[in-house]
Amino acid sequence: MSSCAECGFALWLPIVELETSSVGLYDDGRFPGRLLVSLHQHFDNIEDVPDVLAATYFQEVRHAMRVARAVTGAERINLAVLGNQEPHVHAHLIPRHPKTDPNSAQSPWNDPRPRVRLGTAERTEIIDRYSAAFELP
User: Fold this and answer.
1) How confident is the model at residue 1 (pLDDT cuts 50, 70, 90)?
2) What is the CATH number of the domain that holds 64?
3) Which of 74, 81, 97, 133 is deepest in the core (most CB within 10 A)?
4) Which are the contacts of 101, defined by CB distance < 8 A and separation ≥ 6?
5) Three-state SS for 119?
């Protein structure tokens, strides 16, 4: 799970390597369990990814979304593929809890709370839970 040889994009906290992508924790205390799913091959834009590769990648994204919902207990997992700041295809998976989060109607980028890192114990626990969940068949 090294950085992209072409652009240098790398996951902060890698968790698992899948066939076409790597999954890592995005350390954001507002959304515990937030993930990034980064395509191994470099493409600037999702529409440039060959069809077969894109299909497999999105199967992995969907799998990661199911795992994230199970691990975090979130009612929804928001999916965003942007590329405005990092020109490497990657997906943001953001656990959302509409019944308990007063900011759930806002995108993570418009959330008024300051972004804070998870505590060490919480970060370790989340990574361990994800690691175990991705290992299951």
Assistant:
1) low
2) 3.30.428.10
3) 74
4) none
5) coil
Q: What is the mean pLDDT of the chain?
A: 94
Over residues 42-83, the pLDDT tens digits come to 999 999 999 999 999 999 999 999 999 999 999 999 999 998
Query: For the chain, how are helix, strand and coil distributed in percent, rounded to 5?
Result: 30, 20, 50
pLDDT in tens, 29-53: 999 999 999 999 999 999 999 999 9
- Distance (Å, whole) CA 20 – CA 61: 10
**Residues 60, 20 contacting (CB under 8 angstroms):** yes
Cα–Cα distance list, 114 to 29, 48, 67, 119 (Å):
9, 34, 26, 15
Question: How far is it, in rounded angstroms, from Cα 133 to Cα 11?
Answer: 19
